[in-house]
Design a protein that fits this description.
By secondary structure, this protein is an alpha+beta fold. It has a single domain, classed as Folate-binding superfamily (Folate-binding fold, 2-Layer Sandwich). The chain has a 4-stranded antiparallel sheet with strand order 3-4-5-6, with no helix packed on it. Strands 1-2 form a two-stranded antiparallel sheet. The radius of gyration is 14 Å and the shape is globular. The two termini are 24 Å apart. It binds zinc ion.
Amino acid sequence: MSYLLTCPNCGKREVTDFAYGGEVVPRPKAKPSERELNTYNYFRRNVAGVQREWWNHRSGCRAWFLAERDTTTNEVKWVGLPADRGSRDGEAGATAHGAQGPGAQGIGGAGSGGITA
Ligand SMILES: [Zn+2]
């Protein structure tokens, strides 16, 4: 199903302009246990409802940004750059690390398949 997504830099575009980066998950502490690391890498909440996600404007400005999307209707409730996230919620553990987008720290790119130019 196609829908419109609003890039914080470029405005409304078809969702096919973007790459999905997965749901936002809090990063583990500096030296995580194997269980914490596995949970971070592999477990997702996969909610039926509004969830916060990473998106990349791969066919535009190539910026990583956040969106809150209702997964049952694809209605996008909010979009913002990572710098905006602090004002959006008081999520403990939300740090500047997130500003690099998902997969910026090693293993990764979950959900980034097909991005290669
Ligand atoms: Zn853009």
